[in-house]
Design goal:
The chain has 457 residues and is α/β, with parallel strands linked by helices. The chain has 14 helices and 17 strands. It comes from Streptomyces cellulosae.
Length: 457
């Protein structure tokens, strides 16, 4: 018999197709799934109720879904703070090229902890730096996510275009073409779960046009489709990238991606800041997704992505933290607010995005981009029980009448409870699945160790 958790007396933003909301409603969790959502109190006579939560003063939403990140960067935060993307990469690659398994595990724990305690229930990591002899980096990342209790996609990245080939990474920080493909296939075989409700999935994810050969892009796409997994990479992040693609390939990024098999409903791209109308049309036509990373785009002076135009065209768009060397806060709630504010600085001004569109980007939009909208991203019966209780009756939010406005535009709301797959992983803003102080200590030590190694050259 299913064990039930009943949550009552809360505001609810379901983020379903009709944006259904309840001023005072209930959610019933039965084992791993949502059994019912509705107005008022939960139905009478429910059997095997193991817990009842009086959520007065709270807003319940789907868990936040992060669609782009680089966990390893947790231990290189606060560096090159006044650089654009290319200069930032040149400054940091020599340090990143010296990471090892112990560092990556600590950094993954730090990244996951910060997101989870701030309402993220589904995370992803685009890890693409695999220095020779550095250990089982993919296994370390996946293990950290499993221990944290967060639903997770590892985008197994790769690079094979180093400095000697005109790329940015140091020579010893890249893989060979065949080595990258073989290691990616092995990671999919070991860790990818294609079933409904999977806690761990793997995507094929060569890094970017300026660190990856055309052969790796093309053969990576073929590999992903043979294995039945999704594809992820960086795209159209900066003006310099567009110039690079035109000089090297004779075409812009979107045309280059299409020529290598990298547009489609099984693909999502990070950033997509510099997109013209035909680029957006191509993404809409092929249902290629976008991970919008407003804080990182601003930190690296990349520009303002045309999110309102993408949404109007039907492009799936989610939100991404991006690596914490370009978004030191490391949590996704900031991106709800910044997505709205940054896009209002663009051409559409106050009509660019509203608070409910911002919440949708961070929940259902992210689920679409990760190919999991049938499972997560909205509060509907039959979907997985990934949800968050945000406290909105404290000084920070109590005078804001509309709870969604309070969540998106207000200060970071306390997370009273966060559930993943029906299991509570956060209580009163503290992780239940990991020791935050221990993670803080280990990340500080690993950051210092990496800095010493990098300084020695």
């Amino acid at each position: 018999m299913a064990q039930r958790i009943v949550i009552e007396n809360c505001s609810i933003a379901t983020v379903d197709a009709d944006d259904t909301e309840y001023a005072s409603g209930h959610v019933v969790i039965a084992d791993h799934r949502i059994e019912s959502v509705g107005e008022g109190r939960a139905p009478e006579g429910l059997e095997n109720v193991v817990r009842r939560i009086d959520a007065t003063g709270h807003l319940v939403t789907p868990g936040l879904v992060n669609t782009h990140h680089h966990f390893y960067q947790w231990i290189t935060r606060g560096l090159a703070t006044d650089h654009n993307l290319f200069d930032w990469l040149v400054a940091l690659y020599p340090t990143w090229a010296r990471i090892d398994e112990q560092m990556v595990r600590a950094a993954a724990q730090g990244s996951l902890a910060m997101m989870a305690r701030g309402g993220v229930t589904t995370a992803m990591d685009h890890h693409y730096v695999y220095p020779q002899g550095s250990g089982d980096l993919s296994g370390a990342i996946i293990g950290a996510a499993r221990e944290m209790g967060v639903r997770f996609t590892l985008a197994r990245g790769s690079m094979d275009r180093s400095e000697k080939d005109g790329g940015l990474p140091p020579d010893f920080a890249v893989e060979t073409l065949q080595g990258a493909l073989a290691a990616t296939e092995e990671t999919v075989g070991q860790h990818h779960d294609a079933s409904f409700g999977a806690m761990t999935q793997v995507a094929v994810a060569p890094c970017s046009p300026f660190s990856v050969s055309t052969e790796l892009m093309r053969e990576g796409a073929e590999l992903a489709r043979r294995l039945g997994v999704r594809l992820h990479t960086h795209g159209s992040e900066t003006v310099e990238e567009e110039q690079f693609c035109k000089e090297l390939f004779g075409m812009g990024p979107t045309d280059y991606f299409e020529s290598t098999g990298w547009l489609g409903e099984d693909v999502w791209m990070a950033h997509c800041v510099h997109m013209n109308d035909s680029d957006i049309d191509a993404f809409a036509r092929t249902r290629t997704g976008v991970a919008h990373c407003p804080s990182s785009n601003a930190r690296l002076a990349a520009g303002i992505a045309r999110v309102p135009d993408m949404l109007a065209a039907g492009v799936p768009v989610g939100l991404g933290v991006d690596g914490t060397a370009s978004n030191e806060s490391g949590e996704l709630h900031t991106e709800l607010r910044n997505a709205l504010l940054v896009n209002r600085l663009g051409a559409h001004r106050e009509a660019a995005l509203n608070v409910r569109q911002a919440l949708r980007l961070g929940t259902y939009g992210g689920a679409q981009v990760l190919g999991r909208s049938a499972e997560i991203g909205s509060l509907e019966p039959g979907k997985l029980a990934d949800l968050v209780l945000w406290r909105l009756d404290t000084l920070a939010h109590a005078s804001i009448a509309d709870p969604v406005t309070a969540l998106v535009l207000g200060a970071a709301a306390p997370v009273t409870a966060s559930f993943v797959n029906g299991r509570q992983i956060v209580e009163n803003n503290r992780l239940l699945t990991a020791e935050e102080d221990e993670i803080a200590r280990s990340t500080r030590e690993e950051a210092q160790r990496l800095a010493r190694i990098a300084a020695q050259g």
